[in-house]
Amino acid sequence: MTDDPWEPFLSTVRTVFAFLVCAVIVLAALALVVGLLLLVRIHLRRIHEVLYLGDHAGVGSPGPEDFAWLGYHGGPVWWDLAEVYRRVRLDTGLFVVFLYPFLAVQAVVAAAHLALAWAGVVVSRLVDAALLAARRIRMVCPNCFEAMSYPSYVCDGCGRTHRDVRPGMWGVFRRHCVCDRALPTLLLLGSADLDTRCPHCDHALEHRPGEAREFVLPLFGAAGAGKTRLAHGLYLSLEHGAELHPETLSVELMGEETERRLRESRTVLSPRHRVAPTPPGRRAHGATLRVAAGRRTLLVQMYDTAGEWFNTHERTEELSYLGRATTFLLVLDPLAVPAVWEALDAEEQRRLAGDRSGARDPERAYLQVRDQVQRQYRTLGAAPGKGRLAVVVTRGDLLAGTSVDPRGTPPERWLDEVVGAANLLRAARVDFGSVEVFVTSAVTGPSGAPDPSLTTLSRWVLARDAGALGATLREPCDPLSDAGEERVPVSAGTGGPS
Amino acid sequence: MIDPRHRYRTVRRSTAFLLYLIVAVPTLMALFLLTDRTILLVRSVWETLVP
């Protein structure tokens, strides 16, 4: 056994040394813990101030040109992060480097928020665009004829017009006007409930564009051919169908302008009523009808433009709605055609002289419109030859009983042989995918029902783009069967201009 | 007009709660780990120096 006299001393020294080392370790650990807790407390306090209490008031304030508050993902999320970082750095100085991991985590949270919000923006826009495309809805302003990718909407709180409300940096599902009124960002979400304006010309659109398919229907022809009367007739034939079968068909005039033009249709179409010509200076404007059968709805935009607009290339060029249409009605006054007029005897000429329009050449308007349609189709990239043309011979009631009575002769043959429009028909067949000829009488019978020829024309007009609506007219609402018995045939002797 | 402090309130508060969790939980874990490692280190030092 060896007794080291230094052993107790060394043991004491080791113990003291160990104690000192352990004390240093514990103190260092404590310093780390306290430092970490202080830094984290500062960071959490700044997060609480900026994010929880919202003590960053100026963030996202709209500028003088803005109409809406930015969505949180449209900038404020980064501005809040920057504000937290600025305050933390002021409080901690160089020690801020220890908080970098946490600040990086906050940046990741902000980035995740952005990714989620913008994914929402993209998906909702895609869904909305896909639904519009699937329902083949294209929106056209009846005032300036421009196609709208989306209408502008008026805030119902302050009256500001929001040009493009679709999801974006101002909001995903809702945007907040500067007056703080929340507005839906998509048609899907109910934006059509707001007052609507054209984003190009700021014209008020009262037909709730985007909710149903739009059908552009241009009526063209020489001055005095009977376009206005035919427009009234088409409307009245639809309205008559709706009156007979209100449970299956409804027709509504959309907007004050349309109502002002078409509300008197029944009076206008009375045989003795003479329709004033459309003023040549009046700018074209689409009269919009909302035609619904069950769940199917169609917004029919009828363009009854003064015949003078089809005289020159420059004026026709302004009618850009022609390029948006696929169905066209060429309105033709047979009495104005010299061949028809000369075929009437002297007594008939004397009686019908007041109803004869001045335009002698129906081909002129046709060629102007055809050239313009082809030009606009090319510009828009639309397939040529996809259009349908109806050559509508008006004043059928006046021709009845005359030497050139079209009844009993197929309309095309009558147009070819009596009117001498073989060249016109040949050209039309080349230029349009489908051409039909109709002889119409835009008049009402004693019961107020429109002439069946108008229903036949309406049916054809709706056949391709809204077959279901056309079928509704055909089956239960056909005035030929429903009201025909009440109608007294309009004789040439009592007929007014049609 | 909405009080500016209340603008984006829902999304800001949700983010704040998320950040409380994201900052607090790792901090508590770090403290636990630090304490644990410190105890282990102290014990190791003590056992090495004071057999």
UniProtKB/TrEMBL annotation, chain B:
Keywords: Membrane, Transmembrane, Transmembrane helix. The chain crosses the membrane at residues 15-34. This is Uncharacterized protein.
